[in-house]
Amino acid sequence: MDESFSLEQKQAFFDEVWANHNPYGNESVALCPNDGYRMKAVVYRTEQLKADISVYCPRCGFQSLSCDLDPKAANFRVWTDDEKQEMVDWAFQGEPVACPVDGTQLRASPSDSHVLIHCFRCGNMHIGWVHTRIGSRANPPAPVPAIARPLVFPRESV
Asked: Can you say whether residue 60 is alpha, beta or left, with left for phi > 0 and alpha for psi between -120 and 50 degrees?
């Protein structure tokens, strides 16, 4: 990424790529910081647990960006046991799972007995088991109830 970009521009770019990333594929989109053109982005796994990004802008061309250039990288941390268990619970309940460290939407497809949860932005990974709990909570959280809408009755004509 061009060194003339401010930290805020780099942060916005990486946040946009990861916010638009399809967790079940490797494609994403972002706006070019140079000219605002829509760019095709591809998130690709490396030997590390993190992923690099390649982008193509119709005007600026192709660029490959290392995961080490992510401005949030200095703030990445290891998931806590409670965070891991909460993600496992949400996955087994069929709810969307997001990384508690960086907010990236994660692919979490449980099998009969376990689920693999991996964030390619911060590099955290966890395998959770349906009958094994970790962390400080003894029981899974109750499913979030649907918001009840008030009943609306038709008005009587006057």
From this structure: alpha
